[in-house]
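Tip: read the tokens left to right.
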């Protein structure tokens, strides 16, 4: 088989209208071999470089333009003083270091003063990043510089044949959730990312694959005439294998859900009837004129919760194949009761409300999971009526009928919701999400009261804490929170009933 490698990587940023192309023919790529692409959430700029020894050297003048730095000669040092929004960086000709905020940082090559200006190695951008307090990731192999917390996974693609089938194997670094769908003669692998860094594409199976290309966060595979159906196999979001079957082959099996973690120990409380969890409502707190908490960094709770809700929906649907209903999918005001009503009318099996916290003291921090406190409602709950009010639901189990007084709907689920909250806390801790001093708590929250299914509210952290507000904007923290929630839901699907600790209302029901 023809094996073809595209040596330099192709980077396609978010910028609309950027030309993309199919990469099985050795095309000339837009990211030429002698420039770095500087990618931010809003823009994509080019920075030419020249290789000298082991270092990629760039013009300091151009770095200054890109990052808004002010350069002045320092006659005492015979070097340069570079002002980065109030932080001072010092460099000296022929020295392989820079000094920033009084600290010396090594560079991969000496700073050079040349006739046409000053040259610095590309890793000088790391110094600029720390002066500007901005994350900067330099990928030398792909000539890519990522500014800020953008998720741009690097992909390599192998195409080959497996017996009568074609096969496409995509390696993903770092592991990134994604889903595979087919649109006519295109197979689309959509990633939970800002854009994609497509590296080597090797191998060929022209009957099945005409080419691959990147469109924003989607890897598009053009299907050849032999590709009739497909099946996928995903390993921990690090690798996806798509098998392409010729006409007349066995019908494809539905994609198997990705195991998120090894099977958990049995739950101590039956949270929902095993095997009956099919759908989930995710509630993005606040919206419209209601910003929720606004942190010192300007981040708004309503935006954070909506972003997280959308990502969570994509992760849950693609990885464990459950249906996800969002109580809002835009920046709109939604009444609290309307949120649980959406969950009830969709007959979801679990309700999760996303929020971030605020406190008068800026040092208060940490995530917290809240379930409904029954204390305010218990006296009003007619326990004897509860068993009569249950009706069977399709697929097993029972559920309260709608006749239950609205504000009491959550009562039968109070204990299960609390157990679920504790399980989520456990998974947040495992993902190293910092936790509030009291990580789970039962409170009389209005949004939970009307939910006719296990329900909880996740406060992802305190936006009034500057460090935490910043962290909540990073891919690391977002991914950690998503992993914790997905794992918690996955536990619900897998946890067998172990017969211990079944809540009273469950026992009554049997
Ligand atoms: Zn809130």
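Filled-in amino acids:
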């Amino acid at each position: 088989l023809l094996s073809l490698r595209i040596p330099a990587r192709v980077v396609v940023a978010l910028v609309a209208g950027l030309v993309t192309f199919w990469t099985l023919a050795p095309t000339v790529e837009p990211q030429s071999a002698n420039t770095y692409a500087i990618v931010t959430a809003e823009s994509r700029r080019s920075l030419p470089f020249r290789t000298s020894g082991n270092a990629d050297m760039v013009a300091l003048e151009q770095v200054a333009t890109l990052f808004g730095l002010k350069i002045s000669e320092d006659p005492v040092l015979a070097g340069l003083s570079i002002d980065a929004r109030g932080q001072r960086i010092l460099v000296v000709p022929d020295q392989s270091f820079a000094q920033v905020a009084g600290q010396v940082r090594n560079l991969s090559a000496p700073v050079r003063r040349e006739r046409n200006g000053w040259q610095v190695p590309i890793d000088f951008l790391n110094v600029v990043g720390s002066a500007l307090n901005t994350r900067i990731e330099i990928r030398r192999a792909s000539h890519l510089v990522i500014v800020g917390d953008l998720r741009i996974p690097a992909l390599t693609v192998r195409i080959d044949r497996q017996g009568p089938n074609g096969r496409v194997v995509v390696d993903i670094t770092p592991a990134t959730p994604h889903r595979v769908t087919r649109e006519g003669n295109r197979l689309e692998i959509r990633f939970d990312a800002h854009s994609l860094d497509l590296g080597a594409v090797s191998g060929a199976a022209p009957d099945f694959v005409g080419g691959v290309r990147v469109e924003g966060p989607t890897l598009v595979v053009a299907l050849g005439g032999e590709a009739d159906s497909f099946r996928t196999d995903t390993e921990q979001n690090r690798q996806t294998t798509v098998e392409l079957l010729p006409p007349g082959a066995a019908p494809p099996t539905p994609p198997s859900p990705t195991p998120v973690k090894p099977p958990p120990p049995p739950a101590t409380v039956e949270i929902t009837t095993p095997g009956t969890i099919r759908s989930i409502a995710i509630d993005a707190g606040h919206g419209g004129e209601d910003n929720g908490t606004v942190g010192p960094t300007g981040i708004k709770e309503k935006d954070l919760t909506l972003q997280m809700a959308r990502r969570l929906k994509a992760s849950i649907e693609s990885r464990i194949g459950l249906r996800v209903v969002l109580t809002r999918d835009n920046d709109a005001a939604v009444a609290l009761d309307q949120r649980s009503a959406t969950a009830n009318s969709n007959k979801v099996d679990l309700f999760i409300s996303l929020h971030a916290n605020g406190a008068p003291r800026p040092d208060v921090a940490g995530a917290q999971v809240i379930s409904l406190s029954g204390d305010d409602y218990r006296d009003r709950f007619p326990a004897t009526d509860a068993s009569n009010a249950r009706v069977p639901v399709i697929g097993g189990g029972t559920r309260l009928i709608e006749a239950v007084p609205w504000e009491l709907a959550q009562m039968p689920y109070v204990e299960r919701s609390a157990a679920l909250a504790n399980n989520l806390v456990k998974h947040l801790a495992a993902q190293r999400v910092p936790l509030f001093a009291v990580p789970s708590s039962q409170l009389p929250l209005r949004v939970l009261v009307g939910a006719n299914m296990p329900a909880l509210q996740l406060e992802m952290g305190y936006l009034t804490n500057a460090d935490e507000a910043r962290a909540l904007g990073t891919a690391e923290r977002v991914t950690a929170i998503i992993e914790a929630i997905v794992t918690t839901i996955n536990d619900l699907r897998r946890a067998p009933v172990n017969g211990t600790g079944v809540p009273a209302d469950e026992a009554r029901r049997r």
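The two ends are 63 Å apart (CA to CA). The chain is about 20% helix and 35% strand.
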